[in-house]
Specification:
Layout (H helix, E strand, L loop, with lengths): L1 E6 L2 H11 L3 E3 L2 E4 L2 E5 L5 E3 L26 E3 L4 H11 L4 E7 L4 H13 L5 E4 L7 H9 L2 E2 L4 H29 L9 H16 L5 E8 L4 E3 L6 H10 L3 E14 L7 H12 L3 H13 L18 H9 L6 H7 L27 H17 L4 E12 L2 E12 L27 E3 L2 E8 L6 E2 H10 L3 H4 L12 H13 L3 E4 L2 E4 L1 H9 L7 H15 L5 H17 L5
Parallel strand pairs: 1-4, 1-7, 7-8
Antiparallel strand pairs: 2-3, 3-4, 5-6, 8-9, 10-11, 10-16, 12-13, 12-15, 13-14, 17-19, 18-19
Length: 570
């Protein structure tokens, strides 16, 4: 008997075939050593359109809503039909007794395989390959430790719940508003709340009224003392005129500031920093990271964990970090198996250490070295700075000046090339309490309050990640809610651009008139980040067996019916 292995795409099938010794190329699969290795081409199966349930749904009418099928239909996508036929034949081949799901180890990978398995009416024994790296030894190890397919039933339930929820919201709410306002609107369960955040921010900027204020600044020998905000020019002038040519130092506050390094990357933090440093979009970063993964240079990129498992300590230290100086106390923080869900943080692979990287595209090389530098930094020693604040008081007004000197560079030495000038030393002269210093110049500076900044992909990804969860804003380690998942956020942003709801202006993301008008008409439930974040959490609970698909979908159906009831004549 033979074993059939199904991967997500041909490039992965080639890597697996080599390791298994299935090197004989056939039409749509590889064969050899008791294995047949084939592949999906991304999503082969998709949810069917409403008109496949009833022809009347081909036309959009409010009277026909809601569209809530009792059973959902699926259809094979035309461009990939040929590969599906090959897979179906292989899955039902009498020679095959076991089918191994080797699609990406995540929710979407699970859905891609299961839908093919179900559509092909396959009844064969199902196993699951779950790996975090495409290195030969990781593949080998994965095949030695295959999991039972049924162990991932909950993950598939979660994937189905997500797909059906997206379909229900998309088909019903998009049709409702398109019919009401005679314009083609597309409403998405995650996309619309994301758009809503951008519209709200643009609105805050447009309605921002700048306020004028003043500071009084004193130039002394080698540094400047400045007041806080003074709203009245008259008060500022009075203060300046009262000041004589000398001022006494009231306080010198010296502190040692210790900054610990950041954790290694998950996908969202990688996308954010690539946007900040290189101007890459979230999608570009994901594409480059996926390519590096398939080239066996980094571990699995679609992860939401920033920790590594404890069994990785020896190989990471010996083979990647080498003899570099790292802080052994940090090891205890970073290597924490209890905080790793499906996949650990993104790091370089052991085999990449011996690879010549000069032949890979520059865009991918930048992402690779950022991942590598981040890992080295994450186990580095703290940054230690000596900070100084000089205070002078006159007529009840506080004049201050702040400076810092880096005492120990610590982990930041690995991130030097990405540093801004803000991080450089700002040394203040050595002064003591009671010193009376000469004022060389006095002036009033006119300043204005600043509006909020437009979203960039960096700041939007952060807002999507922390949506509906205030604790995350303060970098508190809590259960993540958020809009979408690390794997889907890039696609959501690109989709909003593609549909003309937002546009790129250099690095900024700005809502279009079409985007603004959609948010104006959509009900709060379907544009609320908090609601969607709560639903996203439900999907996580389904994948962990803590919640049911049925209950989740009932909630969505209820919200749809509730919204329709405002517009439909009973």
């Amino acid at each position: 008997m033979r074993t059939l292995v199904i991967s997500e795409k041909p490039s992965v099938a080639i890597s697996i075939s080599k390791v298994l010794g299935a090197t004989k190329k056939k039409d749509g699969y590889y064969e050899g050593n008791g294995y047949k290795v084939s592949w999906c081409v991304g999503h082969l199966i998709q949810m069917a359109n409403p008109d496949s349930y009833d022809e009347k749904y081909a036309k959009w009418n409010i009277e026909d809503l809601p569209i809530i099928p009792s059973e959902y239909k699926y259809e094979i996508m035309k461009p990939t039909k040929k590969q599906f036929v090959i897979l179906k034949k292989l899955m039902n081949d009498k020679e095959i007794d076991t089918v191994i799901n080797a699609c990406d180890a995540g929710r979407e990978g699970e859905a891609i395989f299961r839908l093919v398995y179900l559509q092909a009416s396959c009844k064969k024994k199902m196993k699951r390959l779950w790996i975090s790296s495409m290195e030969d030894n990781a593949i080998k190890e994965g095949f030695e430790n295959l999991k039972e397919g049924k162990d991932y039933d909950n993950l598939f339930e979660s994937a189905q719940a997500r797909a059906i929820a997206d379909w229900l919201v998309g088909m019903n709410i998009s049709r409702l508003y398109s019919c009401l306002y005679k314009q083609n609107y597309s409403v998405g369960r995650v996309q619309t709340p994301t758009l809503s955040m951008i519209v709200k921010r643009d609105d805050e900027i447009a309605n921002f009224k700048k306020e004028k204020y003043y500071t009084v600044e004193l130039e002394l020998d080698g540094f400047t003392l400045s007041t806080e905000r003074i709203d009245s020019l008259e008060v500022a002038e009075q203060l300046k005129n009262l000041l004589e040519n000398r001022i006494e130092i009231a306080d010198v506050i010296q502190k040692e500031k210790v900054t610990k390094p950041d954790l290694p990357f998950d996908l969202t933090t990688l996308q954010r920093e690539c946007n900040k440093y290189f101007g890459y979009s979230a999608k570009q970063t994901l594409d480059y990271a996926q390519s590096l993964y398939e080239k066996k240079l980094i571990t699995y990129p679609r992860t939401d964990s920033r920790y590594l498992t404890e069994d990785m300590i020896t190989s990471t230290v010996n083979s990647i970090l080498g003899k570099n100086d790292f802080d052994t106390d940090r090891i205890k923080v970073i290597f924490n198996s209890s905080k790793v869900t499906d996949h650990h943080a993104i790091i370089p692979t052991v085999s990449s250490m011996s690879e010549d990287l000069s032949s890979i595209p520059e865009s991918e090389a930048k992402v690779y070295w950022l991942i590598s530098n981040k890992l080295h930094a994450s186990v580095g020693y703290p940054l230690i700075e000596n900070t100084t604040k000089i205070v002078a008081i006159f007529d009840g007004f506080e004049f201050t000046s702040s400076g810092k000197v880096i005492k120990e560079e610590g982990f930041t030495k690995y991130l030097r090339e990405y540093k801004s000038k803000k991080n450089e030393d700002m040394e203040l002269p050595n002064v003591s309490i009671g010193d009376v210093l000469n004022i060389e110049n006095k002036e009033i500076k006119e300043k204005f309050t600043q509006p909020p900044k437009h979203f960039t992909e960096d700041t939007l990804l952060k807002s999507m990640e922390i949506a509906g969860n205030a604790a995350l804003e303060k970098d508190v380690e809590v259960e993540r809610k958020g809009l979408g998942t690390p794997a889907t956020r890039a696609g959501i942003i690109e989709n909003l651009i593609f549909k003309g709801f937002i546009e790129r202006d250099k690095k900024n993301l700005i809502a279009t008139n079409k985007g603004i008008s959609l948010i104006t008409i959509v009900a709060d439930t379907f544009k609320s980040a908090e609601t969607t974040a709560k639903w996203e959490m439900e999907l996580v609970n389904i994948s962990q067996g803590k919640s049911s698909k049925e209950e989740f979908l009932n909630t969505i159906e209820h919200e749809i019916r509730n919204e329709l009831s405002h517009y439909k004549k009973e």
